[in-house]
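Sequence in, structure out.
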Amino acid sequence: MNCQMCQNYIDNELSLLQTLGLLKNQKKLICQACESDFAVITMSCSGCGRQQKSTQLCRDCRRWQQQGKILLKHTALYQYNDAMRSFMQQYKFNGDYKLRGIFNSKFIQIIKSLSKDVIVPIPVSENTMKTRGFNQTTGLLEGIIYQELLQVTTIKKSHQSQFNRKARMLRQQPFTLKESSISLRGKHVLLVDDIYTTGNTLYHAADLLYSAGAINVKSISLAR
């Protein structure tokens, strides 16, 4: 098969252990060259998951604390470098849904390792669902149980990429809680998004979840 990023041929020949059924056969969706372009986050800010030289809180997280926010203790897998930007362009904005499989297995593996009672993905607007046809975040969650408890309030929600940092930080609450039989009272909630940019979207969502009775809200994203 061909790499889903660069379209070069990938040799998916089975190893002896895979042939004997002693090792699970997982077909590679991207070639080694493309895979190496994605930068794994190794050491990061303990508040937002930003790649840095220590786990000390970054300036942005200290600012969130000054605003009275409970830090999300965010986990992110990859840095938002050129390779990840290209992936998001193809997957998210060009609507290539099959690309969700590139990171799906690793993403849900990390999610399963985190302590939580409820997994809540960030929603997309009704307009995005009509035009793109899918929520890029729930696409990454295929194979794991989550609860869609949030909905976008505005009829047409503009993409974060259309705003500069200042405009993003000034945006008003974009979400409301859906009516649900799921109670969040006393629950530990894991918020999930595709990209952590300024944190504004996730903190808006966390505010609602805390108001609904959640005792703790953490978050995770594919990229930061």
